[in-house]
Specification:
- By secondary structure, the protein is mostly beta strands.
- About 15% of the residues lie in helices and about 50% in strands.
- It has a single domain, classed as Thrombin, subunit H (Beta Barrel).
- It has 1 helix and 7 strands.
- The model has no long low-confidence stretch (mean pLDDT about 90).
Length: about 100
């Protein structure tokens, strides 16, 4: 039986370095896709479900977003949701995604 798509926002393929702020460490990973609500981060060592962290991503310019892990694919990565995206970052992300759609 096919799995029903539950996403409300379209994800766009987008590969860029994602810097995860985890305590005093900065982990470097890669994004696979992105939407207004979140992104998939590729990493061999994903964090656990519901873990919260700050990520730095380049969407034309670098923005910081607070994230929460929504789904984990062991050895592959994690799907994260953006938490309380400030208006300036939301506007920057929205403009970037419109640009991706028009390519």
């Amino acid at each position: 039986m096919p799995q029903t798509e539950r996403r409300k926002k379209q994800r766009h393929p987008y590969r860029t370095v994602v810097e995860i702020g985890w305590g005093a460490e900065v982990l470097k990973c890669m994004s696979r896709d992105i939407s207004m609500k979140g992104m998939f981060i590729e990493t061999e060592h994903p964090l656990w479900l519901r873990a919260e962290f700050t990520a730095r991503i380049n969407v034309g310019e670098t923005i910081e977003v607070d994230c929460m892990v929504q789904r984990v694919e062991p050895g592959r990565g994690m799907a994260v949701a953006f938490i309380d995206l400030p208006e300036a970052e939301r506007d920057q992300l929205e403009a970037f995604l419109i640009g991706l759609t028009q390519q």
